[in-house]
């Protein structure tokens, strides 16, 4: 079985254009074995009820893994783990599907939202409902295509009745988005709304207090603005978000009027 899994693993590397592997020392061999185990579990759907990714800064085995696997492949392995996750029992039982993230794996800019809603749960993609349409219009005004950015949420399953995620649900899902950001390594992260800002920055401050400043998350510059769903309920705040986006675009070296 291990041999079969290893062959699948090599085929997946080849499909992403990786034709040579570096000479293996013991640590690298261990990273390969670990990746094979993850892929084997993904293939069989067994043993993945808990997130197996680690939180916090990269360690040696992570950097070995990054040498071995392209970003898209690493995200696919992580997505498979998310699909099998049952950590939040209520959410796992009520979801139609998990909503992992979408966009350019090499994006300079990530949008970090809150949680999937009904449309996202149905379609498996973040920000596809009414709030997502508004985000698309904001991107267009900034001369950015949706496919150029990466979009993810703090949790991957829809909370019933569109309630806010609980603290426990945010903690359960934390290793997944931490790993996503670690893989993508965006230069900029735009937090959409208070839940995203609180989760990423570990702060209790309101969006109103956090906006118009550059914060830091590891190597990324972070900006905070209001969630598009908030704008749908409070259209007057659109002007504030537009100011925030212009600020972000200037920071990114792509100013808009
Ligand atoms: S929200 Fe995250 S941690 Fe909770 S069940 Fe879904 S994928 Fe797992």
Q: Can you describe what's shown?
A:
With 257 residues, this protein is of the alpha/beta class. The protein folds into 2 domains: 84 residues, no CATH class; 159 residues, 3-Layer(aba) Sandwich (Uracil-DNA Glycosylase, subunit E), CATH 3.40.470.10. Helix 1 packs across helix 2. About 9% of the residues have low confidence. Strands 1-3-2-4-6-5 form a 6-stranded mixed β-sheet, sandwiched between helices. The longest helix is centred in the first third of the chain and has 19 residues. The termini are far apart. It has 12 helices and 6 strands. It is globular. Iron/sulfur cluster binds next to helix 5 and helix 8.
Give descriptors for this structure.
2 domains; Uracil-DNA Glycosylase, subunit E; 6-stranded mixed β-sheet; binds iron/sulfur cluster; globular; alpha/beta; 257 residues; 12 helices
Bound molecules: iron/sulfur cluster
Spans of at least 5 consecutive residues with low confidence: 38-61
For CATH, the homologous superfamily of the largest domain is named as Uracil-DNA glycosylase-like domain
CATH architecture type of the largest domain: 3-Layer(aba) Sandwich
Report strand %.
5-15%
Indicate the structural class: alpha/beta
Span from first to last CA? 59 Å
Secondary structure tally, helices: 12
Highest-level CATH class of the largest domain = Alpha Beta
Q: What level of helicity do the residues show?
A: 40-55%
User: How large is the radius of gyration?
Assistant: 19 Å
Q: Enter the CATH topology name of the largest domain.
A: Uracil-DNA Glycosylase, subunit E
Order of helices and strands: HHHHHEEHHEHEHHEEHH
Beta strands, count = 6
Global outline = globular
